[in-house]
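Ticket #433: bound-state structure for coenzyme A.
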Amino acid sequence: MDWKEIYKQKLREPEEVVKLIKSGNRVVIGHAAAEPTALVDAMVKNCKQYENVEIVHMVALGKCEYAKPEMSKHFKHNALFVGGSTRESVKECISDYTPTFFYQVPKLFKKGYLPIDVALVEVSKPDEHGFCSFGVSCDYTKTGAECAKIVIAEVNDQMPRTFGDNFIHVSDIDYIVESSRSLIELQPPKITDVEKAIGENCASLIEDGSTLQLGIGAIPDAVLLFLKDKKNLGIHSEMFSDGLVDLYNSGAINNSKKSLHKGKMVVTFLMGTKKLYDFVNDNPAVELYPVSYVNDPMVIMQNNKMVSINSCIQVDMMGQVSSESIGLTQFSGVGGQVDYVRGTSMSEDGKSIIAMPSTASKGKISRIVPFLDNGSAVTTSRNDVEYIVTEYGIADLRGKTLKQRARELIKIAHPNFRDALVEEFENRFKEKF
Ligand code: COA
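RESOLUTION: The complex was predicted; output attached.
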């Protein structure tokens, strides 16, 4: 049958299709800026018909009404990452968090650790062959749709069409709803002098011809500001945002020296503003693949001169990095941090960087500490860590003893906290700093 005919037959209204969700089902929602908001709104509106529907989601940029206390009888939110919209709910034990490396999320679906009943996804309009693109989120979204018993797709004519292994044919979708609305946007962060100093320190470690992974936020954006004079940079990253568009247009990124996917910027999702979404639309220079591929350390390592830059909350004097919790409070998630730290450390001439301001809470707290807060999760272990960067400098912990590491870290701590750290050093190591 002609795909256009199939498409017509599958077309429904959101209110109608969400009735297919049954109490006790596990529902996966398309990730980040690819959240199918018309479907999610209809599902929340229909909440009285459900009990105990588990919502699996990662970076949830939408309203997250299903995670509110008054919804707890109807929905249980299983967060694979915690953000502003879900933090309180996880803290209050209304929602729960599943620790897992990002690259392994598709495996949880495929191998039945988290079997999916219904996938709610958002896709682009079909092309002339009947293929819809998952647009700005391939990550776990594509695998979620492949593994779900029922796939409901919101076809949004404003979803960019992106390349890579990022398509679904209309014949593989069970039900379709149509929408036309701008994608969820994330505005660029404000970059302060502290972040600029961190960015400059990180950029000093990046050689021409490197392939980069940069997270989101002020620090990655600050790094980009100092890369304009570099040459032949490449991108293999979990995601990128608006800041990268300017650097690409400046000519510093051309992907010509990449040892894997030469000439292409490879990512698993994209999150930013319309500027970014317009840039990636129908752009063969950008390719999206499932996170099980992009973030697999064995894939990342195939990029020579790979440099990863991620951030954290605390580092102790041994080099244990906590990036996702403040004590027992789950603040964010591991995301792809360890995927990249490990893949990068296996890459020929790779460098993995953890970059952070030396203090938190408006300068009241040092992020370099003798001990992690009670209950904090170790995200990057002391065995995996390589470079730690603050606005005060660079500590390369590779091949360093516990004592040498402590010295290096104290040197890049904020001056206000160095005396206390030195005192701890002298007690711990029984020698003068
Ligand atoms: N003690 C107490 N509070 C702390 C703290 C500490 N040691 N460290 C940070 N905080 C507070 C900050 O003060 C800030 O609160 P405020 O906004 O009220 O001032 C808040 O926690 C957020 O800290 P900040 O460092 O500004 O957050 P960020 O938005 O730059 O994100 C991470 C930093 C580490 C949370 C984030 O990078 C992350 O989640 N990383 C893990 C996942 C990852 O690396 N993914 C990368 C692959 S793309």
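RESOLUTION NOTES: Residues 215, 217, 238-239, 310-314, 323-324, 326, 331-332, 335-337, 360-361, 365, 367 surround coenzyme A (CB under 6 Å).
TICKET STATUS: resolved
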